[in-house]
Amino acid sequence: WFRRGRGRLAVSCLGSCIRYDLQAGEKRQVDNGHLVAWAESVHYTVGMATTSIFGTLASGEGIMCTFTGPGSVWIQSHKPQQVSTGGQKQKANQQVGLGGTIVGLCFACVFILFLLLFAGAFLYAIMNGENVEW
Length: 134
Description:
alpha+beta
């Protein structure tokens, strides 16, 4: 559903629309939420924002596009705001990405594991008749 042709193009961006003119071989990484358009001559690859899956999830960045010149790449300075399932926009301080959720669950699991180990050691000491003082 992409069309080719010559002429003027109207685009809409959130915030400022920034144009980067890449020289031959020059690379620029762009978060996919900031991407607007790129010239046909620009080669691109899509990958994770970091080198590991855990790093990508923890950072909340997700997918990153790498563009290699020559050609132009247009980006927007703001990402589109996330919309909840109810159709209402979330406030910025309410947005917690998948990475933040996973990190929070990891901390909760470590805390629960610590409590279970502590309780187990306490019960073991009591069952063996050791005097436990606080």
